[in-house]
Specification:
Helix content is 24%, strand content 13%. With 206 residues, it is an alpha+beta fold. It has a domain of 114 residues: DOPA-like domains (Alpha-Beta Plaits, 2-Layer Sandwich), CATH 3.30.70.1240. A 5-stranded antiparallel sheet has the order 2-3-1-4-5. The longest helix is centred in the first third of the chain and has 17 residues.
């Protein structure tokens, strides 16, 4: 008869003792692994711009809150490079550049620091332009034509806007409030704005 080997028999093989898992150099400590999802979330969050503080409670209802500031946009025709004789039009970039220079000299303003959001500036300033006098990118929404722009604090409205109206020549400009960051931009540009000169199309819809 063949005698079967039992667990305690003389021919039974000893059970192998499992060894602890070896950590390779590519594995991270448990604490780091636990923190990784949080670190990833923070990185993604910081990669996207946060809304300005005022946007957290936006309603866009007329009169719900006071206007925080204003922007002025002076619109003009693109630079004429065709040689077709349109460069002498009074809405040309040469006149727009001249008005910008006169504005900056009159109010002793400098170029805006655009690192903060464009609604969170605090002093009168002019946004940067290219060689043609246009802010960049040119024809950026919501505008359909080149323009140069100004950040206007509420307490400077009374002296800046009348000067612009008196010195604009044939150029047209838009003054719109900043009521709640980007959230209420359609209302700011279409419902609560004023024009000096002729009204131009603005690519917003309500």
């Amino acid at each position: 008869k063949v005698r079967r080997a039992t667990e305690h028999g003389p021919t039974a093989r000893p059970k192998p003792v499992p060894s602890p898992p070896r950590r390779t150099r590519h594995e991270m400590p448990t604490a780091t692994q636990a923190a990784l999802p949080l670190l990833t979330l923070l990185a993604v969050t910081n990669a996207h711009p946060h809304p300005v503080e005022s946007e957290e409670s936006c309603t866009c209802e007329p009169g719900a809150k006071a206007f925080e500031s204003y922007h002025i946009h002076v619109l003009f025709y693109p630079e004429d490079t065709s040689g077709g004789g349109f460069s002498n039009n009074p809405h040309n970039s040469k006149n727009a550049r001249a008005l910008r220079t006169a504005f900056m000299d009159r109010f002793n303003v400098t170029t805006c620091d655009e690192k903060p959001p464009i609604f969170n500036l605090t002093t009168l300033c002019a946004f940067a332009v290219d060689a043609t006098g246009a802010g960049y990118p040119i024809n950026a929404a919501p505008f359909v034509a080149p323009n140069w722009a100004v950040f206007l604090p509420v307490d400077r409205y009374h002296d800046v806007v009348p000067w612009m109206m008196a010195n604009r020549g044939e150029l047209d400009f838009l003054v719109h409030p900043n009521s709640c960051g980007f959230t209420c931009s359609p209302q700011d540009h279409l419902k609560w704005s004023i024009w000096g000169g002729n009204k131009w199309p603005v690519r917003f819809e309500l």
